[in-house]
Write a structure and sequence with these properties.
By secondary structure, the chain is α/β, with parallel strands linked by helices. The chain is built from 8 helices and 12 strands.
């Protein structure tokens, strides 16, 4: 049965995508986007397909390994495949890992009405939030911070647990999936301060019904992979 994981948020989405893809690389893995990503080139991927035809993409996904596919965009990036082709490709792969929104390399974000763009077959959505934002002004560390009226009026508001939780719930509501399909990763837990603040936020989000973890894709990727993939 094909599986599709969407990744949204900030603060480590690309690292999460690559970590999951590598862990699954013994199977047929499609790495792609519905927004924009930098292409995953060999040797990380087995094949890199630019503007592929359906037959070419199906052939590439007939063998184990990571296949990165998308449409050529500006600044060396890929944009997404046509929706019809993406739907077919998800069926041809064992696993599809799809980056489904952008954060302009900031650790946190809020979503416009048109975001995220989650593939219809998505069975799990990983929301990544970067703890490196803690203590810094929302205007500097939250992409589209001004979508929050309070933050637009007070852009120097420091990122704290309340900001983390608000960004997490914004992603969940914007994604529109049932709560049980989400995994909330408070990433970049690499200092005692980040671990402490992240743990408090995770406890709060867990009590509110979300499956939430504090961790570091850099220090302990295996634990995060097993948690995201577990059924």
């Amino acid at each position: 049965m094909p599986h599709c994981i969407a990744i949204i948020g900030g603060g480590g989405k690309t690292t999460a995508m690559l970590t999951l893809a590598r862990a699954l690389s013994g199977q047929r893995v499609l790495v792609t986007t519905t927004t924009h990503i930098y292409p995953v080139s060999p040797p990380v991927s087995r094949e890199l397909l630019v503007n592929p035809e359906a037959q070419e993409l199906r052939r590439a996904l007939s063998l184990p390994g990571i296949v990165c596919a998308g449409t050529r965009a500006g600044e060396g990036k890929f944009s997404g495949l046509a929706p019809e082709l993406l739907d077919k490709a998800i069926g041809w792969a064992d696993w599809t890992i799809c980056e489904a929104d952008g954060a302009r390399r900031l650790p946190l974000k809020l979503h416009r009405e048109t975001e995220p763009v989650i593939p219809p077959r998505t069975e799990r959505c990983l929301v990544v939030l970067g703890l490196s934002a803690l203590g810094q002004p929302v205007a500097q560390r939250v992409h589209r911070y001004d979508l929050c009226r309070e933050w637009a009026a007070s852009p120097e508001t420091p990122v704290d647990g309340d900001v983390l939780c608000r960004c997490a719930w914004d992603a969940v509501r914007a994604g529109g999936l049932p709560l049980e399909r989400y995994r909330i990763l408070l990433n970049q837990a690499e200092t005692p301060q980040a671990i402490a603040a992240g743990t408090l936020a995770a406890i709060r989000l867990t009590r509110e019904g979300l499956d939430c973890r504090v961790g570091s894709l850099w220090k302990d990727p295996e634990a995060i992979v097993s948690w995201v993939l577990e059924t």
